[in-house]
Amino acid sequence: MALTFDPAAKVIDSSESILDLPAFHAELRDWEDGEVGAIHPVTHTWKALALGGGAFMYGLDFINGWQLRFPTPGNYTVQGNLNATILPVAGVFVERKTAAAYATTAIGGSGPSAADIAAAVRVAVAAELTAVIQIQTKVDAAL
């Protein structure tokens, strides 16, 4: 996979489909660790969720404004959980194949807390139970 980096525009050009997310991650890290990349903001975060039995589910999120582009017209495939803005280019079609079971979450100040989610669930469940009890009361009264 040939990648070209434009740090001024924060654009990464890929000349090929991205079919191996760990290999893509390794190439990004190699550039970040290199002489040029070391002075620029990191391109992405990486997650490897162990599923057991040696299986992993990978997630790669572009950060710090970095974007992905396929500069040459053609059909490309991005396989895996790659969360990145793909810049539009005339004549380029990108098919994304991701695992539906994987989600990227925000940590630290954005989005609801676990307590907020739990409170919302309690309110929704209580409302549903109240509706069920009201229906059951009507059914019992009709009998």
Question: Can you describe this structure in just a few lines?
Answer:
The relative contact order is 0.13.
Describe the structure using short key phrases.
143 residues, 2 domains, 29% helix, three-stranded mixed beta sheet, alpha/beta, elongated, four-stranded mixed beta sheet
What does this structure look like?
The protein is an alpha/beta fold and 143 residues long. The protein has two domains: 3-97, no CATH class; 108-143. 29% of the residues lie in helices and 31% in strands. The chain is built from two helices and nine strands; from the N terminus they run ββαβββββββα. It has a four-stranded mixed sheet, with helices on one face. It has a three-stranded mixed sheet with strand order 3-4-7, with helices on one face. Strands 6-9 form a two-stranded parallel sheet. Strand 1 (3-6) and strand 2 (11-14) form a beta hairpin. The longest helix has 29 residues, at 114-142. It is elongated. The model has no long low-confidence stretch (mean pLDDT 89).
Topology:
Elements: E1 3-6, E2 11-14, H1 21-33, E3 44-52, E4 55-62, E5 67-69, E6 74-79, E7 81-83, E8 86-87, E9 92-97, H2 114-142
Parallel strand pairs: 2-5, 4-7, 5-8, 6-9
Antiparallel strand pairs: 1-2, 3-4
Report the uncertain regions.
none
Beta content comes to 25-35%
Please summarize the sheet with the most strands: 4 strands, mixed
Q: Provide the helix percentage.
A: 25-40%
Q: Which word captures the global form?
A: elongated
SSE class: alpha/beta
Query: What letter string, H or E per element, gives the SSE order?
Result: EEHEEEEEEEH
Count of the domains: 2
Q: How much is the radius of gyration in Å?
A: 23 Å
How are the strands ordered across the major sheet? 1-2-5-8
Mean pLDDT: 89
Number of helices: 2
The count of DSSP E runs of length 2 or more, i.e. the number of strands, is 9
How widely separated are the two ends? Answer: 72 Å
